[in-house]
Amino acid sequence: MNNHKLKTGLAWLTGLLLAGLIIFFSNRSAPSVTTNVASDSPSLLQMLKTGSTSGRNDTFCALTTGPDNSCLGNPQALCSTDMEMAQIAWKYFENNYNPETGLYNAADKYPSTTMWDTGSALAATIAARDFGLIDDKDFDERVRAMFKTLNSMELFNKEAPNKVYHAIKGEMVDYRNQPTPDGIGVSALDLARLVSWLNTLSCMHPQYANPAKQVIKRWDMKRLIKDGQMFGLYRDPVSKNMVVAQEGRLGYEQYAGKIFRKLGYDQHVAATYNNEFRTSINIYDVPIAYDRRDPRDLGAYNYVVTESYAMDAIENGIDAENRPLLDNIYKVQKRRWEETGIVTAVSEDNIDQKPYFLYNTIFTAGLPWNTTTDKGVRYDSLKTTSVKAALSMALLYPADPYSKELAYTVNSAYNPDRGWYSGIYESGGGYNKAITANTNGIIMSLLLYKKYGEFHPMCERCQREIKTDAIPARTCDVCATQ
């Protein structure tokens, strides 16, 4: 019995000795550990992915979440139909993006663009990011590629952007998309459209404010803005001399004039609807304002359409001056529907047949409901219900029964793989299947307006609008902004 206990004790002692030797040699061979790093501390990559700081006072993750946009107000939630509309519209821009320049085609699959259409495309890109259709990385790449082109593209006469550019090559072209080393001219109205959305971009995403300012600082505005008005440039096709011509008629003139006024330019004529050129005519007993300047003198018609008034409302804001004009634009089109049964929503639009672009108007050249080219040739057989006009009015007057008629009429006018069509022919000719950056960009901006409200008043509230100190050129010694 004692012999058995002795053997058991020796076995335990041997085991303890072996365990001690193993622990000793293990500690000698183990690498040293720095004592000031916790063994469970996460890597920076893990923190970026999870947002966890595991007790550390590390604010980097919070800093990457973007600017505080609480000044934008309380956004209204978009419904599922809104998002479906946005997805269809964004499809156009997915199909027509040119990463070489950051520019988008003005018309489907046609690599040409203007500064007006670039403004519409920028509006769509801002909305796409806000709606979650693209992520921060995609948004940043698109915006910075566009800025690279806008800050390096050749300018017409070294003054301002040419009217048209090749969307892939970024070079000046004519309206046939053929290279033109000297360019064809400058549109001040087109520049205003781009400035409007550069301003909204700077407001919603302040990291782009400086490159946006640099774009505008490149432009020499001395001949484009003077005497309280806007002017365009072009070369006479015969003499090749430079021509400076007053630009803008009642409607589009005020939309653009207000935008330049916010930059500090004198627009005391262009920025108000109550200027000396305004007159009116009754159509269906509704007073419709129009511009009385004679196209035979200045070579430009006044097209009374929905688009300019709708854009002024959603971008510049609704006020006591434009509210009655906007109301009458809506009312007269509703009255035509009531009188004729034709769902009426008119605007300028591309069309899918010759002459390929028409002004479908409430009033032009002395005629109500005139559908015409820029040369005054009538095409009344090609009248259309404009998708962008119908949706603009439906959104601005949601409580009126006619808005439901408008929205219901155009709600299927799209190709899910290409975007929204421009319209529907009134004569029963089916869809107007022209698909453009402007129509789809306006639809995206309408939805952004539904979410946030009027853009420029919103940016003023945030104090993030483009500041005038970035604009060195002035067109008068003392410019009184009104």
Task: Tell me what the structure shows.
Helix 4 (80-95) packs antiparallel against helix 15 and helix 9 (252-262) runs parallel beside helix 11. The protein is an alpha+beta fold and 482 residues long. The chain is globular, with a radius of gyration of 31 Å. The protein has a single domain (72-456), classed as Alpha/alpha barrel (Glycosyltransferase), CATH 1.50.10. The strands form 9 sheets. Strands 7, 8, 9 and 10 form a 4-stranded antiparallel beta sheet that branches. A 3-stranded antiparallel beta sheet has the order 13-14-17, with no helix packed on it. It has a 3-stranded antiparallel beta sheet with strand order 18-21-22. The chain is 41% helix and 14% strand. It contains 16 helices and 22 strands. Mean pLDDT is 88; it is low at 28-53 and 472-482. It starts with a helix and ends in a 20-residue tail after the last helix.
Keywords:
482 residues, alpha+beta, Glycosyltransferase, four-stranded antiparallel sheet, three-stranded antiparallel sheet, 22 strands, 14% strand, globular, disordered C terminus, DUF3131 domain-containing protein
- Highest-level CATH class: Mainly Alpha
| Rg, Å, rounded | 31 Å
Low-confidence region ranges: 28-53, 472-482
Cα shape? globular
Number of strands: 22
Structural class, judged by helices and strands? alpha+beta
Mean pLDDT equals 88
The proportion of residues forming helix, as a percent range, comes to: 40-55%
> CATH homologous superfamily name?
Glycoside hydrolase 144 (GH144)
Through-space gap between termini: 115 Å
Count of helix runs: 16
Provide the CATH architecture: Alpha/alpha barrel
Could you say how many structural domains there are in total? 1
What profile does the largest beta sheet have? Answer: 4 strands, antiparallel
CATH-assigned fold name: Glycosyltransferase
β-sheet strand percentage: 5-15%
